[in-house]
Design a protein that fits this description.
Layout: E1 2-3, E2 19-21, E3 49-50, H1 65-73, E4 84-86, E5 93-99, H2 102-109, E6 126-129, E7 143-145, E8 171-179, E9 189-195, E10 198-199, E11 201-206, E12 209-215, E13 221-224, E14 233-241, H3 247-250, E15 254-256, E16 259-260, E17 264-270, E18 272-283, E19 290-300, E20 309-316, E21 327-331, E22 338-348, E23 362-369, E24 375-383, E25 388-390, E26 410-411, E27 414-415, E28 420-422, H4 436-448, E29 453-455, H5 463-472, E30 475-477
Parallel strand pairs: 28-29, 29-30
Antiparallel strand pairs: 1-25, 2-22, 3-12, 4-17, 5-6, 5-8, 7-15, 8-14, 9-13, 9-17, 10-16, 11-12, 11-14, 18-19, 19-22, 20-21, 20-23, 23-24, 25-26, 26-27
Length: 478
């Protein structure tokens, strides 16, 4: 019987030990946009990002341990962090216009990223609230396809792989004014902007300057905008292409809309920060005690080496009991503009186990302290202890299955039956932007009908859905 890796609730797998360099782009350094990245032509099929921060767990820092814990028990309490600022929501206005293709949008693209640009309603500009697909804001139309690409033969009769269509490929131009909260700027900190979901390729500008480019509709992306910001009001502009060369990879049985369909927000981190982490639990043979392993990546974005720092881990239940009591790891040294990964290992006696029937969750806190013992950063996430047992399917050199017998899949040593459904991000009023209340109702209705598993249909879902599944007890198959 193969023991599966237990619940990895947040963070990406990282090799141990790991070191690397960091070279953040400065605002006065040219960002190499060609504005052909989305086309898939002339080598651009190899370009999927420009100046994007590395993919990580996208942690949110908190000003104190109580706030960090609270955000585990109530998802939207993350907004109470002093270092988190929403740019989407009911009270946040954006300006948007959508044109049929890049050529038709070219006249507006020349200056729409500048602070003094006049978003004239005669050019189709509207004031909108996000997140919401632009097909639900009076622009463009939805497209459903199954086995074929979503190209429209009326406009583009033939599109060879890996090119993107050019005649019908709507381009949305977004503008947003914002002023950075004062708490975001305390001390030597970096400011990131995060886009949780954009369909499907987009360019980011801050105060008229090119910041970065990204593809991948359903994954969250961050850009370091520290050196692009000014005191007072700032101008954010985003150019979104509905289709790109990446659409060939994303194509599947679903509805295509377009635009910014998940949250956009700002995060402030210290220049020496917890940039990523991995959490693994391994139950013993009696499924009583657990080995807990945490790999924490620390990034030093300053011009001096850091030694003598520590990372502490705590895990609280909802009654406030700490089952770890500050186990820690020494940060042996991180050179200037570099990063390193450090591990915390401990055994947890008789933790409450997670399953769909008993979704026991702990609030895991990771605290970074400097060489004088002063807290520099606190991040948190859901933590569950569980272990999946399954029989690995073996194949020979001809990929013929050689396994003869399979044992039943188990959860914490008990037989597990998955009763699952496929799920897509789709809403009649918001497009791909599924409201939180709708996600909650999805989970509630599934559980009322004895469904205990969700298949995320080939793409990353919004982080809120994973939070709901962890909290209320749903298995997730990516």
């Amino acid at each position: 019987m193969k023991k599966g890796i237990a619940m990895v609730l947040s963070g990406l797998l990282a090799a141990m030990p790991l070191t690397g360099s960091i070279t953040p782009k400065k605002a006065d350094a040219a960002v190499s946009f060609t504005h052909q990245e989305w086309t898939g032509k002339n080598g651009n099929e190899k370009v999927f990002q420009v100046n994007r921060a590395p993919a990580t767990c996208n942690a949110v820092p908190y000003q104190d341990a109580a706030s960090a814990q609270s955000a585990v028990w109530e998802y939207n309490d993350r907004e109470k962090s002093d270092y988190f600022q929403m740019l989407t929501g009911a009270n946040e206005d954006w300006e948007l216009t959508v044109k049929q293709n890049d050529q038709q949008a070219s006249g507006l693209k020349n200056g729409f990223m500048n602070a003094n640009y006049n978003a004239n309603p005669a050019d189709g500009w509207k004031t909108v609230q996000l997140p919401r697909s632009w097909t639900r804001l009076g622009f463009d139309f939805s497209i459903y396809t199954n086995v074929g690409e979503p190209w429209q033969s009326k406009y583009d009769s033939y599109v060879p792989a890996p090119n993107a269509p050019t005649n019908y490929n709507p381009v949305g131009l977004y503008r947003k004014k914002f002023t950075l909260d004062s708490t975001m700027q305390t001390g030597d900190r970096r400011i990131y902007i995060q886009f949780d979901g954009v369909e499907s390729a987009y360019y980011v500008y801050v105060n008229g300057k090119e910041v970065g480019y990204s593809e991948d509709t359903f994954s969250p992306h961050r850009f370091d905008i520290t050196d692009y910001l000014t005191s007072g009001e700032n101008t954010l502009a985003v150019e979104v292409h509905k289709f790109c060369d990446g659409t060939w990879f994303e194509d599947q049985d679903m509805i295509y809309d377009g635009g910014i369909f998940r949250d956009v927000f700002l995060v402030s981190t210290p220049s020496v920060q917890i940039s990523d982490y991995t959490v693994r639990t391994d139950l013993d043979n009696s499924y009583t005690n657990a080995d807990l392993w945490i790999g924490v990546e620390v990034s030093n974005m300053t011009s001096s080496s850091k030694t003598g720092w520590t990372i502490e881990a705590d895990a609280f239940d909802e009654e406030g009991n700490n089952i770890l009591s500050g186990v820690s790891a020494q940060v042996s040294g991180v050179k200037e503009n570099s990063k390193g990964t450090f591990e915390i290992k401990t055994t947890v006696k008789s933790p409450k186990l997670w399953s769909a029937e008993t979704p026991n969750i702990y609030a895991l806190l990771l605290t970074l302290k400097d060489d004088k013992g002063k807290v520099q950063e606190i991040v948190s996430t859901q933590l569950g202890f569980r272990e999946i047992g399954f029989t690995r399917t073996e194949v020979n050199g001809s990929y013929q299955v050689t396994t003869k017998n399979w044992q039943a899949i188990t959860i914490n040593g008990k037989r597990l039956m998955l009763k699952g459904v496929n799920r897509h991000d789709t809403d009649p009023f918001y497009g791909k932007a599924v409201p939180q209340k709708t996600m909650e109702e999805d989970v509630r209705l599934m559980q009322q009908n004895n469904v205990n598993a969700i298949r995320t249909s080939h793409y990353s879902n919004d982080s809120y859905l994973y939070w709901l599944c962890n909290k209320y007890g749903m298995y997730v198959m990516g």
